[in-house]
Design a protein that fits this description.
alpha+beta; SH3 type barrels; 2 domains; five-stranded antiparallel beta sheet; three-stranded mixed beta sheet; 12 helices; 10 strands; 40% helix
Length: 291
């Protein structure tokens, strides 16, 4: 693996430590096909910043390590970048999705915090809002998908037909630009839309009678996701019902769904068609040529 790829993964975790104050472990796949679970111990770099050696404390029993903060069994394994085929945050333990589920469950069960979750300006409510908003945009590997280039964003999100059309139409005009500029331009014509407002998700969570991680997870994973739609679709979906917008060359009133609506109601209101898996794979491959 290249230094840039390795650094991106090592820096990827949205939170730096687990519930015991330890850094998240990594799954290391070597070119010989072997796989190891280990915590980062140290790295050695040359003057120009290139990795020379990366050392992990490889755990003999990863599952035991998960639950025991005093578990120490394991061996040091130092690797050259050329020996590593794939490196990723280990999703077997408290991956970012699970971390959010655990935190949200704790907040809902906290007798001090809970009464303030319906007070718009209270700090607990604001923080809880962010937890719920971040959940669908964090990948299983702990990456904030909003910060990725467009090929990687599309790898994590479903895409509307109109957004796909807008991207493909714009690409020939931007092929000579820098990666950063390409991303900026594509952001201008598309919009990452949470397919349900945070307020709707929060109401479902607050209505739970039995607040467990499983019940919280069921709500958060029941279709709550980020979908890439066109800028025009976004304006109409979230816009005021008395305001005119343009969609497909025609004037149309806003749908007023910025804080309400089910998954299906919101997408159906703008007749948003989701491109097929094959079309998305082709889009990803096309975008990678620009990055």
């Amino acid at each position: 693996m290249e230094t840039a790829e390795i650094k991106k993964i090592l820096d990827a975790a949205f939170f730096d430590i687990d519930r015991f104050g330890r850094r998240y472990p990594y799954k290391i796949t070597l070119v010989d096909g072997s796989e190891h679970i280990g915590s980062l111990a140290r790295t050695d770099r040359s003057v120009d910043g290139t990795y020379i050696e990366i050392c992990f404390k490889v755990h003999d029993n990863p599952n035991l390590w998960l639950e025991d903060p005093e578990y120490l069994s394991g061996n040091m394994k130092c690797l050259n970048p050329e020996e590593i085929m794939k490196l990723e945050v280990w999703s077997g333990y408290n991956n970012e999705k699970m971390h959010f589920i655990q935190e949200i469950t704790r907040w809902l069960n906290n007798s001090i915090i809970r009464p303030h979750l319906n007070k718009p300006k209270h700090i607990y409510n604001i923080a809880f809002h962010h937890l719920l908003r971040w959940y669908p945009q964090i990948s299983e590997a702990g990456l904030d998908t909003y910060e990725l280039d467009f090929s990687e964003r599309v790898s994590n999100w479903r895409v509307s037909r109109r957004a796909h059309k807008a991207i493909m139409a714009k690409l020939p005009d931007i092929k000579e630009l820098t990666k950063g500029k390409i991303t900026d331009i594509l952001k201008e014509i598309t919009h990452p839309e949470h397919n349900a407002p945070v307020a709707v998700i929060k109401d479902k969570l607050l209505a739970l009678k039995d607040i467990t991680e499983k019940n919280v997870e069921d709500i958060l994973n029941a279709g709550y996701e980020v979908i890439l739609i066109s800028k025009e679709e976004s304006k109409i979906l979230n816009g005021g019902k008395k305001t005119d917008y343009t969609l497909d060359g025609k004037k149309e009133k806003g749908k007023g769904y910025s804080k309400s609506g089910s998954y299906s109601d919101r997408l159906n209101s703008i007749q948003a068609e989701i491109i097929s898996k094959d079309e998305r794979e082709h889009l990803i491959k096309t975008l990678k040529k620009y990055y």
